[in-house]
Amino acid sequence: MKLVLKSLAAFALAISVSNCGDKKETDAMGNTVDETTETTAAQPETASDPLLAKGQELFEGKGTCATCHKADAKTVGPAIKDIAKTYKEKNASIASFINGEGEPLVDPSQYEIMKANFVITKAMSEEDRKALETYMMSIE
Ligand code: HEC
Question: Which domains does the chain carry?
Fold first, then answer.
């Protein structure tokens, strides 16, 4: 019984690890975990738009954005929904902003803290920046 629980835990861990990266992971049994089928059940809205799913993955993973931005509460940075609202109102582009091509529209007094992240986002591909924008703009 204990052994069964242990392998279940290892399996769950393997799945959660596979959700963070974009490479396929193997589970405790050595089988490839197909992350598209593993994640779609919990997040149906990301299943329909691959760019949105990629954006969320980058936001929470490689981009480290989630450390400072929560969906609907201000923490270190403004809430994602407040950023999305401002960018919609002003018809501005998050993808351009995180490529260092824009002025801060949400909280200019804290811009220096955000600016430090451009090292990460400028090194990304244009598609990755667009994916981050798609994800952030989807939060209401
Ligand atoms: C160390 C904390 C921190 C991290 C990590 C961080 N941000 Fe920010 N972010 C901030 C702060 C503080 C602001 C408010 C300053 C501002 O508006 O520029 C902000 C503002 C923003 C804005 C609004 C900019 C504007 O027009 O005012 C966007 C868009 C944004 N962040 C995207 C991101 C993305 C995408 C990532 C991940 C690649 C990220 N942030 C990571 C702290 C952070």
Answer: 1-42 (no CATH), 44-140 (1.10.760.10)
Mutation test residue for ligand 1: of 117, 135, 137, the one with most atoms within 8 Å of CB: 117
Whole-structure pTM value: 0.75
Which three-class secondary structure string do you get for the chain? CHHHHHHHHHHHHHHHHHHHCCCCEECCCCCEECHHHHHHCCCHHHHCCHHHHHHHHHHHCCCCHHHCCCCCCCCCCCCHHHHHHHHHHCCCCHHHHCCCCCCCCCCHHHHHHHHCCHHHHHCCCHHHHHHHHHHHHCCC
Please measure the distance between the N-terminal and C-terminal CA atoms of the chain and give it in whole angstroms: 45
Q: How far is the CA of 88 from the centre of ligand 1 (A)?
A: 16
Q: What is the pLDDT of residues 28-76, one digit of tens each?
A: 666 665 555 444 445 556 667 899 999 999 999 999 999 999 999 999 9
CB-count exposure of residue 78 (10 Å: 0-12, 13-18, 19+)? buried
